[in-house]
């Protein structure tokens, strides 16, 4: 594997984790949202990652160690929303319950920390590779 492929691999992971952070931010922004006019509350979304080979577009042989990460899907959590009894709420149903989103703020905060750490780690990998390449160039001087 070429040293330059490290940038492609870590770059794909940075991009995927950036998308994961955006989804987490959207989930956290909708923690306490109430069901809309269609009766459906916001549903938490989760990012699905998959490993993929880098550079195999034209069917040519690819270095088997050159893999990256891509986002294959963003799935909605099908768990039911929280129902809270509040008959005075303007969005209460006929039984007096208000349906809130199914976002769990604690789980989303953990997900956010994990995504930001993964993002930071991949940036650090790219910085280390850059320093190693600079040291290699200095050896040739």
From TrEMBL:
Subcellular location as annotated: Bacterial flagellum basal body
Top-level taxon in the UniProt lineage: Bacteria
Domain Flagellar basal-body/hook protein C-terminal: 95-139
InterPro entries: Flag_bb_rod_N, Flagellar_basal_body_rod_CS, Flg_bb/hook_C_dom, FlgC
Chief location: other
A biological process from GO: bacterial-type flagellum-dependent swarming motility
Keyword annotations: Bacterial flagellum, Cell projection, Cilium, Flagellum
Keyword hit for Coiled coil: no
A cellular component annotation (GO) from this entry: bacterial-type flagellum basal body, rod
Pfam families: Flg_bb_rod, Flg_bbr_C
UniProt domain Flagellar basal body rod protein N-terminal: residue ranges: 8-34
Family of this protein: Belongs to the flagella basal body rod proteins family.
Oligomeric form and interacting partners: The basal body constitutes a major portion of the flagellar organelle and consists of four rings (L,P,S, and M) mounted on a central rod. The rod consists of about 26 subunits of FlgG in the distal portion, and FlgB, FlgC and FlgF are thought to build up the proximal portion of the rod with about 6 subunits each.
Protein name: Flagellar basal-body rod protein FlgC
Organism per entry: Inhella gelatinilytica
Source taxonomy: Bacteria, Pseudomonadati, Pseudomonadota, Betaproteobacteria, Burkholderiales
Gene transcribed to yield this protein: flgC
